[in-house]
Amino acid sequence: MMDTASSPLSLQSQKTSFQDLPEASPKPYKKGFVATLMGGASTNPSFKEDNYFVSLLRSSEKKALQELKEKLKASFEDSPSDASMWGIPLLGGDDKADVILLNFLRARDFRVGDALHMLVKCLAWRKEFGADTILEEDLGFKELEGVIAYMQGYDKEGHPVCYNAYGMFKDKEMYERVFGDEEKLKKFLRWRVQVLERGIKVLHFKPGGVNSLIQVTDLKDMPKRELRVASNQILSLFQDNYPEMVARKIFINVPWYFSMLYSMFSPFLTQRTKSKFVISKEGNAAETLYKFIRPEDIPVQYGGLKRPSDLPNGPPKPASEFTIKGGEKVNIQIEGIEAGATITWDIVVGGWDLEYSAEFVPNAEGSYTIAVEKPRKMGASEEAIHNSFTSKESGKMVLSVDNTASRRKKVAAYRYVVRKSSTI
């Protein structure tokens, strides 16, 4: 048996070719901070991820780094081994230590005294909290694993991605079970730190490496009032003890009342943290996430191709992205399929709300086209299609997505593999 994904392929559109589809550009307008961010998948251009090459620092920043090292050494003169994080000695003087120290300096705008205070306080918290051994604990939140908060895949730049979704807590029974009293809340916060520590474990902590995470937070069905205390504590805890560990915070399915929600936790955030925000209103999740994460790494519930069952099967097969303009129909033609071969495909359109169909067209004259999947309207919240077909004769597979009834451009992705018959 042989696998191949290199069959000739063409994309046809009812109005224009796929290659000619232009990227949409948002029109400039003046709005408040929250309203501007809620305009779609736009990013704040003021934020640029920092590098950690000491040679590229400004002279004042180099001076601050050296001063922090000296003050930290003096603070831990009697117990130097206590000055370590994630197994990295902060007094070791190597590149990994510099990465961590620069995170604290940047979080305090290179004010050495403030950075030292934050760092010492964080070291004390990690010791008291037991953060260094938390990955070994079984906290008993099996029903939350892979649902509420979980690490999954990487973005296009190699950052690990942490997904957060609190809609499950709209169920009062579930809410009481997790947040019903102070002890339960403490246990949940401990579990939430455990999830974050899993992501940090795969960071490089070196100049030029991947030194931060991406956070995707789904606000759909989030009970805004009930989670106020938990949200504030999580944000405060992370900002105080994990400075500059998040490269970007992507909020999806943002409800209309986000302005109120934002005003609730805004006082807990620095301006630098706010500059990392990407906020997408409800229905634009796929369009937003495709800008940062490849479709094969995005969970199916957010318009991607990643399913929980894919996890044991190794790295996901690469997907091809395309866009469908409003008023267009796009045909994906997968040619060169031999007799007896089996083709398996995945296809998804962000916020479907259009018609999809699949047919096999034999090469031989006089042969009938086979309707593999009859035309049907795909709902906005439907997940990716996954299907396969074994051909009795050579031909091509045509996957059609019909967006002629809409004026809205949509992002989409597909992938396929053809397995030739083992019989000769």
TrEMBL record:
InterPro entries on file: CRAL-TRIO_dom (IPR001251), CRAL-TRIO_dom_sf (IPR036865), CRAL/TRIO_N_dom (IPR011074), CRAL/TRIO_N_dom_sf (IPR036273), GOLD_dom (IPR009038), GOLD_dom_sf (IPR036598), PATL (IPR044834), PATL1-6_C_GOLD (IPR056794)
UniProt domain GOLD: residue ranges: 286-420
Membrane topology according to the record: Peripheral membrane protein
Record-linked Gene3D superfamilies: CRAL-TRIO lipid binding domain, GOLD domain, N-terminal domain of phosphatidylinositol transfer protein sec14p
Ranges where the CRAL-TRIO domain occurs: 136-310
Biased segments, Polar residues type: 1-19
GO (cellular component) term, any one: membrane
Region described as Disordered: 1-27
GO biological-process terms attached to the record: cell division; cellular response to auxin stimulus; protein localization involved in auxin polar transport
A Pfam cross-reference name: GOLD_PATL1_C
Keywords: Cell cycle, Cell division, Cytoplasm, Lipid-binding, Membrane, Transport
Cellular localisation: Cytoplasm; Membrane
The keyword Cytoplasm is assigned to this record: yes
Gene Ontology molecular function, alphabetical: lipid binding
Annotated family: Belongs to the patellin family.
Protein name per its UniProtKB record: CRAL-TRIO domain-containing protein
The gene coding this protein: Vigan.09G098400
